[in-house]
Model the fold of this input.
Amino acid sequence: QKEVEQNSGPLSVPEGAIASLNCTYSDRVSQSFFWYRQYSGKSPELIMSIYSNGDKEDGRFTAQLNKASQYVSLLIRDSQPSDSATYLCAVKVGTGNQFYFGTGTSLTVIP
Amino acid sequence: EAGVAQSPRYKIIEKRQSVAFWCNPISGHATLYWYQQILGQGPKLLIQFQNNGVVDDSQLPKDRFSAERLKGVDSTLKIQPAKLEDSAVYLCASSSSGRLYEQYFGPGTRLTVT
Done:
């Protein structure tokens, strides 16, 4: 089982809709969770970090963490064509320094 | 504030040759990471430095890969000898001590091994 798993997609949503991206992780001790956006041919860009159960909002982005279910998600409200990218979930695993990225979910926002 | 700098941006070498990549992190960032990203996959952490000490290198193929961060600032990642499967983008990232793992990435070096 991989440390971090994401649905590779592709996920397509119409402009203005809510895009929902999901991520599960295997290590119950994990404490730190991150979402990165990666445009084709570019390097990852940090969007959100979340450390506590519940929701964290930043503009059109909301990260949701449920440690009991080992699940973290990213909601993008009012999706725009410029949001079309691959979204990477990343987790600091356990109490050491192991850090893993998922394989990413490809999102396409259709105008 | 200047971002993470990497060079070269592209490199093409033949298998069994050696190659080196350079990274300069964001000023003041004590933690530096090297990742390998193969097409269609997420980045894989190769090595993490805190200042000039290695924090984690458990996924670094030490028979052919080496990295150093002298003086706790810039860093070099070397591959010797290269294999075809080393073709990937090599990403460098840095983070500040207070916000570990909130990483800022450089533009990457695209390596092609023929």
